[in-house]
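Methods — Computational structure assignment.
A single polypeptide chain was analysed. Its primary sequence is given first, followed by the predicted tertiary structure written as structure tokens.
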Amino acid sequence: MSMIRDLRAAVRPSLRKRTGAPYNAYNSYDATRDPSASSAVVDCAVYRDGRRLKEEACLTPREAMRQVREGGGFAWIGLHEPTEAEFAGIAAEFGLHPLAVEDAVHAHQRPKLERYDDTLFTVFKTIHYVEHAELTATSEVVETGEVMCFTGRDFVITVRHGGQGSLRNLRHRMEGEPELLGKGPSAVLHAIADHVVDGYIAVADAVQIDIDQIEIDVFSPPTKGSTRGTDTGRIYQLKREVLEFKRAVSPLLRPMQLLSERPMRLVDPDIQKYFRDVADHLARVQEQVVSYDELLNSILQANLAQATVAQNEDMRKITSWAAIIAVPTAVCGVYGMNFDYMPELRWKYGYPLVLAGISVICFVIHRTLKRNGWL
């Protein structure tokens, strides 16, 4: 609660006039430091008519906004895992809502789209496929990160969490398309959404290969010395990774539909058409992930069924050998009793005859069980 009060204090109406009063971690203002200067800033640039303004030194967010107010265009500020103190000054400078600021700093958010006054706050889950030589019961298949995007009329602030999902290459690619950047901050928002969803498609294709391999291993004939059911841990681990993938994809469907269908002041109408393509790709990935989850359920059930069948086969073999052993046990048990008058008891060939009889009976039982598939 104290943190929220601090953030609300940072965006008081008096501060939303963007007076640029410096802010420190103790909710007091220090006139000796620039609040927009942050070690978490990885890039800060001003774009005018779709082209990046060349600067001799790296801009601070405050300097970038000053240039925007003076000459137009928009600022694109990129941050990586900022602390509360590092982000507080930027929040005050741009008048960001404290609830959105709290989400951006602490991460671990669900994909969503929220509107605060003249700012859109969008959360994306980034997915990275973890390469592995062999899938095991402890293999990490997907690694998640987050990209939060504050989109205003004349600024874009991206906050990235996690070691994956860098936007540096995306920024460079967009700087090579000035006609697209000329559409403003909404063009950057679309590019980020398209970049994230393209990552989903690549990961979905890679996960498909793992699922195919699991399916082959489960339904292929067992090798010598192997037993059915040994793949259960691998299947369950892959299912957990697919579930994590699903949690990143499914909640993003609704935000993409809103951006592609509902008119918004902060989204250029020409850019809104491109969001439809992103929404279509996302819907395709979501269908793939759901089908992966269902397929893994079927594979897991089939694997458990095979293990049960294998156990039943083992029990039938044990029962068959027990039935065969029961014959000599019964005969020997009878002849081991202390009776004076028993069949062939004192006959010279009685002992070999009994052994021969036991062998014949056991052989007949063995052949019968084998013919019926028990052995």
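Note: The beta strands are 41-48, 51-52, 74-80, 112-116, 119-129, 142-151, 155-161.
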